[in-house]
Amino acid sequence: MQFDHLGLVVKSLARGRSTLAEVLSIRAWTTEFRDETNGVLLQFGRDPAGVVFELLEPLDGKSPVYNALATGKGILNHVAYRVVDLAATTRRMRAAGCAPTSEPRPAVAYGGRNIQFLITPLNMIVELIEAPDHAHEFFRAPLET
After folding, report:
1. Any idea where the domains of the chain sit in the sequence?
2. pTM for the whole thing?
3. What's the CATH class of domain 2-134?
């Protein structure tokens, strides 16, 4: 398993970018991705230490992350890892007491490769991404006003 990102639910990507630029000095961003299958508009940002954050804006009230905004709980939503074999890693995690939240689904931000979310016995959400060699493409964005 290779660390990929921390998922953060936001009301809008623009507000999330602005806040993370001010608070964590994030200036490197990917393009925005609209992922209808997973119900989110998303974008990745990298801080000066190299930690990657994924901003998740729900597309509508049916989005799996909408409830986090509505309740204010689970805003720091998940930790994500790239894996070689999604099925094998999911089996191993299930044997350790984790439960999948849904079936694997393709993700636009990873070129249509499958992702899978699981809840651990500690109630932490882990995202598995079957894209072991994926690398986000970042660019330097000007500060928004």
Report:
1. 2-134
2. 0.89
3. alpha beta
